[in-house]
């Protein structure tokens, strides 16, 4: 079961989850995205919500709409996602995380980067 929150519209939350999958290579670049029906059943969402999520990813330049065939992951989508996620992390999350580490007295050599 998938949990959703009230902080963002459902379509945006789904778009973020799907983008996370794309970042992990699922589906790989050049391959088709699952259909609206498949995603609606998988996430227990209205097909209109799923369609909006896919449209958002398409609008962000991550997908190619091949008329009559479906949506495919664009070449370079993974790197585009990685770049934007890195920028967001370094701008929004890292400063807060660094401050918390300092407060807790956790030094860089105490962190295990391999897990």
TrEMBL record:
CDD domains: WHTH_GntR
Superkingdom assignment: Bacteria
GO MF annotations, alphabetized: DNA binding; DNA-binding transcription factor activity
Chain ranges of the HTH gntR-type domain: 8-76
InterPro entries in the record: Tscrpt_reg_HTH_GntR, WH-like_DNA-bd_sf, WH_DNA-bd_sf
Keyword flag Iron: no
UniProt cross-references to PROSITE patterns, sorted A to Z: HTH_GNTR
SMART domains: HTH_GNTR
Pfam families, A to Z: GntR (PF00392)
Alphabetical keyword list: DNA-binding, Transcription, Transcription regulation
Protein name as it appears in the record: Transcriptional regulator, GntR family
Organism: Piscinibacter sakaiensis
């Amino acid at each position: 079961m998938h949990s959703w929150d009230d902080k963002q519209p459902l379509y945006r939350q789904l778009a973020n989850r799907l983008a996370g999958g794309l970042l992990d290579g699922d589906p790989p670049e050049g391959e088709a995205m699952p259909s609206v029906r498949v995603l609606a059943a998988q996430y227990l969402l209205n097909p209109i919500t799923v369609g909006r999520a896919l449209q958002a990813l398409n609008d962000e330049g991550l997908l190619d709409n091949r008329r009559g065939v479906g949506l495919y992951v664009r070449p370079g989508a993974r790197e585009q996602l990685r770049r934007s996620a890195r920028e967001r992390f370094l701008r929004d999350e890292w400063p807060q995380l660094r401050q918390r580490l300092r407060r807790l007295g956790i030094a860089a050599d105490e962190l295990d980067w391999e897990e």
